[in-house]
Fold Thioesterase family protein.
Amino acid sequence: MHMLFRTLLHVLFLSRRRPDLGHYDVARTRFITLPTDLDINRHMNNGVYFSIMDVARFDMLVRNGVWGIMRERGWYPVVASETITFRKSLQLWERFTIESRVLGFDDKAVYVEQRFVKKGADGRPEIYAQGFIRGRFLKKSGGTVPMAEVVEAFGAGPGDGLPEWIERWGQDVALPATRAEAPSVWS
């Protein structure tokens, strides 16, 4: 329930009061580790990281105008794949920032990088965790939004395209269309 509250707080109030962004700018969303975020080891639960990344992506979508475009066209975003790497734990009441940015597109998905950043002992930003999301856009009327329509709506991606490793990751984690096509390690 608290994650729903956090999402609504950001989407309905905080995001709308923060500066607008370009579609491919880095969005910085501030958070604090709450008691409901903790696991038995008294640090942020690994599953909570993904939930907070969701909230930060909604903040980015509102601030960069993509949320409005999606609503006009009857689209909504879904996560197809995600991965995260942890460096340090976030403790109770620690303040941190999630930096979110769109990396680019392939023929099926959009890729987003998100970093959990906290000021280090020396005062410089320190990355505590880093996640990558492979997402799709679906139509409320049914079906997937073709990437050509996504690019037309939001503009060409930043830079020289996706890094080679993230394209490989996207291909490696994509599930086949049918169960029969899926390789299995289970007998």
In short: The chain has a mean pLDDT of 88. Strands lie at 27-32, 75-86, 95-105, 110-119, 125-139.
